[in-house]
C-alpha cells in the first residue's frame, strides 16, 4: 500500500524539515572547527612535538628527537653534566612561586570580590546596573595600560611615594616595585573583575527565601552566610577562582613590568626562551606543555564537579 | 484507495497517523476527516497529543507512519513553508521587530505577492480584526487581546486552505476569552476557512465547534457535534471529561431496540438509552446532574438521602446517597421558586426521559 | 522591613565594594591626571598642560604610534568581523541544531581559546607558524586574533540566541518563508544586538592583546600594545600616559556602546 511507503521515504530524506538549520548544520560548524582546529589545536600539538626536539642555538629547532628539554626542567646534572643526578629545583621553584602567587591573588580577589559581588547583587533597580557597570569598565581597559598605570603609581619616584614624602609619613621612598608584593598587587588588580562577575551572577540567582528560612530557624547572619549562602553560590565562587587562578598562573605582564628579574613567574620564563638568540625553543615548548597540562587538570576537575552538580 | 469525489468536501484527511518520539508514542494511530469550512476542535486533557497532531499538519513535526491529505493531496512530506496551511501560535509568535502591518504582510510577501496586493490585503485583515489604528505599532505595544487578533490576521492574510489554532485563547483573561470566542467563530463563518482549533477547555469546545474530536493518550475517543458528545458520549472517558456526570454500574436485564432495561446495585431498575447491548452484559450508565429532579420519596426512579449541599451561584449542587452507597450529584437552579432540599432529607429522584445513558464497557 | 535587611545586607560589605572600586580606578585616574602634568620628571605635579597630547600626535614618536594605532585598528576590525561571522554560524548550528553527536565537542572547541593560557597560545602559534614556514607578520597576527576572539564573540551571540524562542522561525516558515528567508528576515534581526555586542567584545579583546601579538608579530610590525610595551621598557614617559589615557577612553566608549546595544536588544525582546 502506497500510504505506508510515502511517509517512510520522507523520513529518510530529511529527518527535520521544519528546523531552521536542518542539514547544513555541519557546514555552519565548519568554519569554527577549521579555524580553531588549524590555528589552535594543531599549534598545540606542534608545540608538543617541539618539546621533544633538539634546540638550535640561534632559536628554532633541529629535527632530532631529544628529551633534553624535560631533562633540563626536572634533573640537575651539575654544571658539566657529569655529576650524580639530582632534582633540579630552579624551575620547580619558579612554578611553585607562580602557584603561590596565583593562589594568593585568588584568595585576595575572593576576600574583596565576594562582599562586592554580594553588595551589588543585592541592590535594586537602576543602582544595581550602575554598580555593575562601574565594576566591568576596568575589566575592558587594556591590561597593559592598567599594569603600566599601577607601575607608575607605586614606583620609587611615583606619586604614592611622592605624596608620602611630602606629607612626611616616610623619609625614604618605599620600594614596592620589583618585589613579590608588587607582582601580587598586579595580579590582584588585573583579575579582580573576573572574581566579581561570576559570583555576582550566582548571588543574583540565589533565592533569598533560604536565608529567611534560616533566620526563621534562629541562625545568625554570619552563620547563614557560612552555612546557607556559601554552599548555594559555590559554583560562582569556583568559576571566579578559576578565572583568576588560571590567567594569574601564566601571567606575563604583571611579573615582567612590576616584578623585575628576581620575581620570575612561569610567563616570563617561557617568554625568555623565545627571545632572541639566547632562547631555547624546545625548553620553552616543554614548559608551556607542563603549564598547559596543569591548567587542564584544574579545568577537568572543575568540569567534573559541574557535571556532578548537574546530575545530583 | 480514496474516493476522489470526496476531495472537495474533505479538507484534511488524517489516515493511520502514528507519531513516535524516541521512546514515547505520542500519537497511536489516528484517522480523522475534517470537512471543508468546518470549525473542528481537538479536545483532550494535557499531554494527549493535540499539539503534536497540529504540528504534524503544519509540518513542524514529521509523522512516523501514515499520511495526511489536504484536499486529496499528500502533504506529509512537504516542509511547512510549502503547505497552504497557517498557524495561530499559542503565544502568538508575533515578530517583535516588525510592526503589526509588517507582520500581517509577511506571509503575502513570502508568497511573492506584489506590493499593492500586500497592502490591500493587509488593510482588509486589519479591518477584519478591527486594528486599523494599531497598524504601525510594534507587538510589544499591544495588549494580549490585540496581539491575539494580530496573530489571527497574520495567519489569515495569505488565505490558507486550513487555519490551525493551538490554544489561541489560553493566554487571555476570562472576560476577553469569552468575547473572543464569538469573534473567532464569526470570523470563521465569514471567511469560510476550515479551522482546526486545539483546546483543553471543554466549554470553549462546546460553544464554538461544528464538530469535536475528544482525544486521550494519543487516541481518538469520539468524534461528533457538541450535542452528540455531550448527550451521547460513547465511553466513560468522554462522559467524564465533558461536563459533569454520575456513573452507576449496572447489569443489563433486557434490551429492546434503542433501549435497555438495567438494574443497579440496590436492585432498582432503570431504562437506559443505547443500541448495541445484550441481555446479561454488565455496563456503566452515565446520568448528567442537571437531568435529575427531586420528588417525594415514594415516587421517582431512585431514592436516597441528601448528604451534601454545595452553593455554586447560579446553581446548587445536591449530593444524594443511594441505598447502595453510590453518590449521585444533582444540579438544580438556584431559585426561590423551588424548595432546595436540606441535608438529611430522604427524597426520590426523577430522571428525564433518555437521561440515563448506557456506555460501552 | 527588618528581615529583608538582615538577610540581604551585611555590615561592611559596602566598604569592601568601595575599596574594590577604589583599587580598580585609582591607578587609571591617577594616570589620566598625570598625563596633564607639566613636568618632565612626571612624578611631581607642576601644573596643567596639553603638551604630552601634542607630543603624541605631532612629536618625534608620533609617526610610530600612528602606524601602530592603524595596525591595531585594522587588525581588530578584521578579526572582530571574522570571529563574529564564525561565531554566529557556530551559535546557530549549536543552539538550533538539536541534539547531535559532536555538540559537546564543538562547544568545547569553541571555548578552547578561553581555557588555554594566553602565553601557551602565543608559544604554540609561534612554533606552528615557524614550523610550516609561514612568515610572521600581519597575517599571523590576524589569524591568531581571530582564533582567540571567537569565544568572546560567541558568548553574547549564543546568550541572545538562546533567549529567542524557535517559534519565530517556525512562524515565518508557516508563513511560506524558506529557511534562508526565515533566517534573514526574522532570526537575524532578532539576533542583531547579540552580534553587535559580540563584535564589540571581540574588537576590544583584539585591541587589548599583547602577549600573543608580541610572539607572532615578527620584526617590523607593531600594534599599539606592543609599541607601548616597548616604550615602557625604556621608562614611563609622560607621552605614554597620554596615549594610555586615550586608549582608556576608547575602551570606555566601546564598552558603554556595547552596554547600550545590549539594553536596546533586551528591551526589544
Ligand atoms: N519532542 C518531544 N519528545 C518527546 N516527547 C514529546 C515531545 N513533544 C511532546 N512529547 C510528548 O508527547 C505527548 C503529547 O504532547 P502534546 O504537546 O501534543 O500534548 P498536548 O495535548 O498539546 O498537551 P497540552 O494541552 O498540555 O498542550 C506528551 O506526553 C509529551 O510529553
Ligand atoms: Mg499543547
The shape of chain B is elongated
Report the portion of residues of chain B in β strands.
Answer: 35-45%
Q: Looking across the biggest beta sheet of chain B, what order are the strands in?
A: 6-7-8-3-9-10
Shape of chain C: globular
User: Beta-strand level of the residues of chain C, as a percent range?
Assistant: under 5%
Sketch the major β-sheet of chain B. Answer: 6 strands, mixed
Question: From the alpha-carbon coordinates, what is the Rg of chain B to the nearest angstrom?
Answer: 25 Å
If you compute it from the alpha carbons, what radius of gyration of chain C comes out, rounded to the nearest whole angstrom? 23 Å
Low-confidence stretches of chain C: none
Mean pLDDT value of chain B = 88
Cofactors, ions, other ligands = adenosine-5'-triphosphate, magnesium ion
Number of helices of chain B: 8
Most strands sheet of chain C? none
Enumerate how many helices of chain C there are, as a single number: 12
The helix-and-strand class of chain C reads mainly alpha
Helix content of chain C: over 70%
Q: Kindly, what is the distance between the CA atoms of the first and last residues of chain C, rounded to a whole number of angstroms?
A: 34 Å
Low-confidence stretches of chain B: 1-5
What is the H-and-E element order of chain B? EEEHEEEHHHEHEHEEHHEEEEEEEEEE
Distance between the termini of chain B: 33 Å
List strands and helices in order, with pairings.
The complex is a heterotrimer of chains A (312), B (361) and C (269).
Chain A: H1 2-13, H2 25-50, E1 53-55, E2 61-65, H3 68-74, E3 75-76, E4 86-87, H4 89-121, H5 125-140, H6 143-154, H7 159-167, H8 180-205, H9 208-216, H10 221-249, H11 253-259, H12 266-273, H13 281-311
Antiparallel strand pairs in A: 1-2, 3-4
Chain B: E1 10-21, E2 24-35, E3 39-43, H1 50-58, E4 65-70, E5 73-74, E6 85-88, H2 100-110, H3 115-128, H4 144-156, E7 162-166, H5 174-191, E8 194-199, H6 202-208, E9 211-216, E10 219-224, H7 226-231, H8 236-241, E11 246-256, E12 259-264, E13 269-273, E14 282-287, E15 292-295, E16 302-311, E17 315-321, E18 327-333, E19 346-351, E20 357-359
Parallel strand pairs in B: 3-8, 3-9, 6-7, 7-8
Antiparallel strand pairs in B: 1-2, 1-4, 4-5, 9-10, 11-12, 11-14, 12-13, 14-20, 15-19, 16-17, 16-19, 17-18
Chain C: H1 2-8, H2 13-34, H3 51-58, H4 62-96, H5 103-115, H6 118-131, H7 138-162, H8 167-174, H9 179-208, H10 211-216, H11 224-233, H12 238-268
Helix pairs in contact in C: 2-12, 3-4, 3-12, 4-7, 4-9, 4-11, 5-7, 7-9, 8-9, 9-12
The complex binds adenosine-5'-triphosphate and magnesium ion (MG).
Amino acid at each position: 500500500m502506497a500510504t505506508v511507503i510515502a511517509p517512510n521515504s520522507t523520513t529518510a530524506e530529511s529527518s527535520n524539515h521544519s528546523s531552521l538549520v536542518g542539514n547544513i548544520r555541519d557546514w555552519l560548524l565548519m568554519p569554527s572547527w577549521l579555524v580553531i582546529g588549524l590555528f589552535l589545536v594543531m599549534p598545540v600539538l606542534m608545540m608538543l612535538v617541539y618539546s621533544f626536539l633538539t634546540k638550535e642555538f640561534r632559536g628554532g629547532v633541529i629535527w632530532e628527537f631529544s628529551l633534553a628539554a624535560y631533562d633540563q626542567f626536572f634533573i640537575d646534572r651539575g654544571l658539566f653534566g657529569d655529576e650524580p643526578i639530582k632534582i633540579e629545583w630552579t624551575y620547580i621553584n619558579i612554578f611553585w612561586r607562580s602557584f603561590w602567587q596565583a593562589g594568593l591573588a585568588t584568595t585576595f580577589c575572593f576576600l574583596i570580590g565576594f562582599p562586592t559581588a554580594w553588595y551589588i547583587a543585592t541592590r535594586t533597580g537602576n543602582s544595581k546596573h550602575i554598580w555593575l557597570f562601574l565594576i566591568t569598565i576596568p575589566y575592558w581597559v587594556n591590561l597593559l595600560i592598567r599594569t603600566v598605570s599601577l607601575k607608575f603609581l607605586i614606583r620609587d619616584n611615583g606619586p604614592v611615594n611622592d605624596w608620602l614624602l611630602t606629607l612626611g609619613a616616610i623619609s625614604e621612598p618605599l620600594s614596592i616595585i620589583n618585589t613579590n608584593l608588587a607582582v601580587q598587587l598586579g595580579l590582584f588588580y588585573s583579575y579582580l573583575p573576573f572574581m566579581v562577575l561570576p559570583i555576582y551572577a550566582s548571588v543574583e540567582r540565589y533565592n533569598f527565601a533560604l536565608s529567611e528560612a534560616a533566620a526563621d530557624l534562629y541562625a545568625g547572619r554570619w552563620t547563614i552566610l557560612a552555612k546557607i549562602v556559601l554552599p548555594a553560590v559555590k559554583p560562582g565562587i569556583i568559576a571566579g577562582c578559576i578565572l583568576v587562578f588560571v590567567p594569574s598562573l601564566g601571567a606575563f605582564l604583571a611579573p615582567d613590568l612590576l616584578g623585575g628579574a628576581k620575581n620570575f613567574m612561569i610567563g616570563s620564563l617561557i617568554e625568555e626562551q623565545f627571545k632572541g638568540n639566547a632562547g631555547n625553543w624546545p625548553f620553552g615548548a616543554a614548559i608551556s606543555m607542563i603549564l598547559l597540562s596543569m591548567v587542564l587538570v584544574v579545568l577537568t576537575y572543575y568540569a567534573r564537579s559541574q557535571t556532578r552538580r548537574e546530575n545530583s | 484507495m480514496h474516493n476522489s469525489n470526496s476531495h472537495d468536501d474533505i479538507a484534511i484527511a488524517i489516515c493511520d497517523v502514528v507519531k513516535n518520539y524516541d521512546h514515547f508514542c505520542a500519537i497511536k494511530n489516528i484517522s480523522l476527516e475534517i470537512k471543508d469550512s468546518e470549525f473542528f476542535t481537538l479536545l483532550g486533557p494535557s499531554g494527549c497529543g493535540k499539539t503534536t497532531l497540529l504540528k504534524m499538519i503544519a509540518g513542524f513535526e514529521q509523522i512516523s507512519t501514515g499520511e495526511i491529505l489536504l484536499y486529496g493531496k499528500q502533504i506529509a512530506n512537504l516542509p511547512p513553508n510549502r503547505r497552504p496551511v497557517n498557524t495561530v501560535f499559542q503565544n502568538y509568535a508575533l515578530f517583535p521587530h516588525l510592526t503589526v502591518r509588517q507582520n500581517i504582510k509577511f506571509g503575502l510577501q513570502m508568497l511573492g505577492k506584489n506590493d499593492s496586493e500586500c497592502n490591500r490585503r493587509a488593510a482588509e485583515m486589519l479591518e477584519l480584526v478591527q486594528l486599523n489604528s494599531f497598524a504601525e505599532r510594534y507587538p510589544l505595544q499591544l495588549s494580549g487581546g490585540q496581539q491575539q487578533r494580530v496573530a489571527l490576521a497574520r495567519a489569515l492574510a495569505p488565505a490558507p486552505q486550513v487555519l490551525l489554532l493551538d490554544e489561541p485563547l489560553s493566554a487571555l483573561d476570562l472576560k476577553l476569552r469569552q468575547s473572543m470566542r464569538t469573534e473567532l467563530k464569526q470570523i470563521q463563518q465569514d471567511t469560510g476557512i476550515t479551522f482546526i482549533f486545539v483546546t483543553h477547555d471543554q466549554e470553549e469546545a462546546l460553544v464554538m465547534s461544528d464538530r469535536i474530536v475528544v482525544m486521550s493518550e494519543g487516541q481518538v475517543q469520539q468524534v461528533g457535534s457538541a450535542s452528540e458528545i455531550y448527550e451521547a458520549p460513547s465511553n466513560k472517558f468522554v462522559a467524564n471529561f465533558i461536563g459533569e456526570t454520575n456513573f452507576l454500574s449496572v447489569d443489563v436485564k433486557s434490551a429492546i431496540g434503542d433501549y435497555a432495561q438495567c438494574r443497579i446495585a440496590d436492585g432498582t431498575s432503570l431504562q437506559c438509552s443505547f443500541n448495541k447491548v445484550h441481555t446479561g452484559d454488565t455496563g456503566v450508565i452515565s446520568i448528567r446532574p442537571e437531568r435529575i429532579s427531586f420528588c417525594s420519596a415514594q415516587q421517582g426512579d431512585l431514592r436516597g438521602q441528601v448528604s451534601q449541599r454545595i452553593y455554586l451561584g447560579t446553581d446548587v449542587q445536591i449530593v444524594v446517597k443511594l441505598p447502595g452507597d453510590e453518590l449521585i450529584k444533582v444540579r438544580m437552579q438556584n431559585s426561590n421558586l423551588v424548595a432546595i432540599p436540606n441535608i438529611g432529607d430522604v427524597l426520590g429522584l426523577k430522571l428525564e426521559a433518555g437521561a440515563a445513558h448506557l456506555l460501552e464497557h | 522591613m527588618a528581615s529583608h535587611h538582615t538577610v540581604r545586607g551585611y555590615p561592611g560589605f559596602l566598604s569592601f565594594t568601595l575599596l574594590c572600586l577604589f583599587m580598580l580606578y585609582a591607578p587609571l585616574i591617577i594616570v589620566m591626571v598625570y598625563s596633564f602634568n607639566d613636568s618632565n620628571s612626571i612624578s611631581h605635579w607642576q601644573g596643567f598642560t596639553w603638551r604630552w597630547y601634542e607630543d603624541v600626535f605631532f612629536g618625534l614618536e608620533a609617526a610610530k604610534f600612528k602606524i601602530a594605532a592603524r595596525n591595531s585598528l585594522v587588525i581588530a576590525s578584521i578579526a572582530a568581523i571574522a570571529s563574529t561571522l564564525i561565531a554566529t554560524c557556530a551559535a546557530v548550528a549549536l543552539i538550533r541544531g538539536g541534539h547531535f553527536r559532536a555538540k559537546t565537542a564543538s562547544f568545547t572547541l569553541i571555548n578552547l581559546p578561553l581555557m588555554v593560557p594566553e602565553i601557551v597560545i602565543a608559544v604554540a602559534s609561534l612554533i606552528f607558524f615557524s614550523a610550516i614556514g609561514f612568515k610572521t607578520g600581519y597575517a599571523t597576527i590576524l589569524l591568531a586574533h581571530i582564533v582567540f576572539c571567537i569565544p568572546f564573540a560567541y558568548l553574547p551571540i549564543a546568550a541572545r540566541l538562546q533567549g529567542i524562542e524557535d517559534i519565530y522561525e517556525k512562524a515565518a516558515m508557516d508563513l511560506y518563508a524558506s529557511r534562508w528567508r526565515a533566517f534573514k528576515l526574522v532570526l537575524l534581526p532578532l539576533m542583531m544586538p547579540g552580534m553587535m555586542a559580540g563584535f564589540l567584545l571581540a574588537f576590544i579583546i583584539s585591541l587589548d592583546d599583547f602577549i600573543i601579538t608580541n610572539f607572532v608579530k615578527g620584526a617590523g610590525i607593531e600594534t599599539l600594545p606592543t609599541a607601548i610595551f616597548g616604550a615602557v621598557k625604556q621608562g614611563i614617559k609622560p607621552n605614554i600616559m597620554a596615549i594610555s589615557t586615550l586608549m582608556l577612553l576608547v575602551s570606555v566608549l566601546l564598552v558603554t556602546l556595547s552596554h547600550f546595544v545590549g539594553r536596546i536588544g533586551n528591551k526589544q525582546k
